Amino acid sequence: MIENKFPGKDITSDDLKDKFPLVAKKSPDHKSKFSICGIEFGGDKIPVFAGPNMVESKELIEDIALNVKKYGASFLRGGAFKPLSFPYRSKKYNETREEGINWLNYVKDKIKIPIITEVMEEKYISFIAETADILQIGSRNMQNYPFLTACAKTGKPIMLKRHYGSSLRDWLGAAEYILVEGNKNVLLCERGVVAPHTHRSTSRFLLDLQVLPAAKEITHLPIVVDPSHATFWRPWVSSMSLASVAAGADGIMLEVHKDPDNAAVDPLQPIDYFDFNKLMKSMDLVAKSIGRSIF
Fold this sequence. Notes:
About 35% of the residues lie in helices and about 15% in strands. By secondary structure, it is an alpha/beta fold. The chain has a single domain, classed as Alpha-Beta Barrel (TIM Barrel), CATH 3.20.20. The strands form two sheets. The protein has an eight-stranded parallel beta barrel, surrounded by five helices. Strands 1-2 form a two-stranded antiparallel sheet. Helix 7 links the parallel strand 8 and strand 9. Helix 2 runs parallel beside helix 3, helix 5 packs across helix 6 and helix 9 runs parallel beside helix 10.
């Protein structure tokens, strides 16, 4: 192993000792493994989170849950509280909020699939934690430190999404706020970064696949990749998912919808059931080539 006194572009050895010692690896082979709802993270299997950006209706989320579980997803993802870029809403482009969480709870019990959903405000943490098996902290809240602390104190596993303008140092520093509360079940999630050129006018971010090996040199925490949000374009999701598996992702988060073109939120990026099934099989082939698996 090549010795590197300064492990990252803006990360020093002092950072590893004093700024985020709980997040930092203690040895080259230090890698966290933990189970959530009987599903291991950090091991050879790569869990998949799949579902719609928005929990639009009870009937739709039930149908999506049935299908993503049938094709091998370990977790159902779906947002009820959504941090939309602008304050305006319409009948179609709206949040289902408490009602959406109740629908997720119904599906969780009926379909027997674990749930991950985003928490946006401290006042809703307890309510959402009653249903969610993993609390997702979105990119915009990544450095809301009092909020991170409050979520950590629930004891629930947490997925911390990287802010699209965040350095690796800031991302790991944010994760330290969760671990310092004694909550060790933390997943990091790469979901794209801001760049001058994104290759398509509708694509706001670039998927930073290079952060996977870079982060794994420094932290023991499992790292999930969200190619759907990162690409913002359905035709690119498959290739970036396969690349993420090859690059060492410890989980994949995908937007899946029954009718992608008519999704209430971000209709350009979700894939349908047929393409999800196909992609799961393709990811498994890539995973097997590096000694891992999707199923």
